[in-house]
Amino acid sequence: SHSWLIVPAAGQGRRMGADKPKQYLTLADGQPVLAHTLARLHGAFPSARLVLCLDADDRWFSPQWVPFTNWQRVAGGSERMDSVLNALHAMTATDDDVVMVHDVARPCITQGDLLALYQAATTNPAGALLAMPVADTMKRADDQGLSTRTEPREHLWHALTPQGFRYALLRRALETARQRQTVVTDEASAVEALGESPLLVSGRRDNLKITHPDDLALAAAILAAQAV
Ligand code: C5P
């Protein structure tokens, strides 16, 4: 059996307000976010097969940033889940293959977290996701932005990536979500909707998703701190 990595990188990253998608902004060592993310994944899984989801009109991508020998490019879709479904339909996996999906915008992922997630995804039949227990007090707001109640946080987690599942389960989950016309923002949501419960794997707090302009400098500082 093979291990697969799907990296959705077809987003526009509009919240960054930059002149190109965030995955192409220079992060460190003259390399863009996308190159750093792929280098981290390759470091942990050098023989995995990579499926990279890119916008059909992408003008910035260069294959020089892909360290994998076995990889393919697929077109992105209008939502993240459509990009991942395109990947699942294009790849030649068998039902039992483990597929890990990782945001291109999370370049600070560590080898330790990657290996822990892979281990959990392989062991748990419903798959696994990296996640972080909520540390702040959680408020529910009304439409006016008034705090109406406090949500107990004991059972709340931030969902991170990667998230890993057997190919057949992940494909069935996302195809079902699409049939039901629900937009899921991660793979685990689609699996949960089938009545399955993926394992939450406590991950590092510095697995930042680059979203807002300040996040680029923060991610560069995290990479520098991890290197010492
Ligand atoms: O915008 P956000 O950070 O939530 O996107 C999460 C990931 O999904 C990013 O890696 C982005 O490139 C990807 N994406 C995609 N196709 C879309 C939308 C987002 O591959 N249509």
From TrEMBL:
Pathway assignment reads: Isoprenoid biosynthesis; isopentenyl diphosphate biosynthesis via DXP pathway; isopentenyl diphosphate from 1-deoxy-D-xylulose 5-phosphate: step 2/6
Site positions (Positions MEP for the nucleophilic attack)? 153, 209
What GO terms in the biological process aspect are recorded for it? Answer: isopentenyl diphosphate biosynthetic process, methylerythritol 4-phosphate pathway
Identify the PROSITE patterns for this entry.
ISPD
Q: Where is this site: Transition state stabilizer?
A: 15, 22
EC identifiers of the protein: 2.7.7.60
The family database entries (SUPFAM superfamilies) matched by this protein are listed as: Nucleotide-diphospho-sugar transferases
Please indicate which superkingdom the organism of origin belongs to: Bacteria
The protein's UniProt keywords, in alphabetical order, are: Isoprene biosynthesis, Nucleotidyltransferase, Transferase
| Swiss-Prot/TrEMBL catalytic activity | 2-C-methyl-D-erythritol 4-phosphate + CTP + H(+) = 4-CDP-2-C-methyl-D-erythritol + diphosphate
The terms under GO molecular function for this entry are:
2-C-methyl-D-erythritol 4-phosphate cytidylyltransferase activity
Q: Which family does it belong to?
A: Belongs to the IspD/TarI cytidylyltransferase family. IspD subfamily.
What the protein does comes down to: Catalyzes the formation of 4-diphosphocytidyl-2-C-methyl-D-erythritol from CTP and 2-C-methyl-D-erythritol 4-phosphate (MEP).
Q: What is this protein called?
A: 2-C-methyl-D-erythritol 4-phosphate cytidylyltransferase
Q: From which source organism is this entry? A: Vreelandella sulfidaeris
